[in-house]
Amino acid sequence: MAAGENGTVVTHFILLGLTNHTDLQRLLFGSFLLIYTMTLMGNLGMMALIQTDPHLHTPMYFFLSTLSFVDICYSSVVTPRLLADFLATDKSISYTGCMAQMAFFLLYGTAECLLLATMAYDRFLAICHPLLYHTLMSRGMCIRLVAVAYILSMANSAVQTSNVFRLPFCGPNHINHYFCDIPPLLQLVCTDTTMAKVILYIFSALATMTTLTIILVSYSYILVTVGRMSSAEGCRKALSTCASHFTAIFLFYGTVFFMYIKPRAADSMDQDKVISVFYTIVIPMLNPLIYSLRNREVKDSLRRKICGKIFP
Length: 312
Hints:
Elements: E1 2-3, E2 9-10, E3 12-15, H1 22-52, H2 59-87, E4 92-94, H3 95-128, H4 133-136, H5 139-165, E5 174-175, H6 182-186, H7 194-227, H8 232-260, H9 269-293, H10 296-310
Parallel strand pairs: 3-5
Antiparallel strand pairs: 1-2, 3-4
Helix pairs in contact: 1-2, 1-9, 2-3, 2-9, 3-5, 3-7, 3-8, 5-7, 7-8, 8-9
């Protein structure tokens, strides 16, 4: 229950979704159902491949398997609800349900940032300090890094969610979005939101700028090290292992920065909804494709699995 200053109590919100056009909703339902199916199959397939192939039991693929799990959870926080709303006439979501959706969305979104940074650090150690790599990036260290990523993600989620839901909602309760995100919810608050927006920008910047700095510094050292390599084959192999990771970073951070760090215009919500589709629905589907199509070890593993089934 959320009581406003005028005594009104908001018990639920209504998600306005992506569009009100019925024909377009049917087309989007089919498209997003296909994307979500591919997201589940691609990421589950990546996790199964890494788990069952001993050649992929390395720190890099341990982090990639964790990223696949996060992508499944990240997409599942938003997409099933969006698909249901395309078919439903009642698009309401309870106050508690909205809070939970935001909390899990922030949790897995932050975890995505931290895992991408961890993977960049892993590549830095592997390429710049190969002799110390297996000592520094032991199995125990990998588990600790993932645990720290989850702890920091939960902390960010708790702060950001409480930052929004401690504020009074007096009505209207129509959220101009397809899920409970912070910017559209702040538009419904019936008190000054300056401090809430400052907290939003600070913690969003901490989650994105800090991890992006780690990524850029890691890849700067990687490029310097690769540039000093005398072997063309070693240079090509080092760059090939980083290409897929850098592609995933560019797609994810590009859309997130445009969404949360850019100055906000009063009429930008419809544009923001379209941008949100990319990083909440499309990118979790693309990640396993990027890592499988641009990574020789994954392609070799797939080839071994397929050939093993055809010629046992």
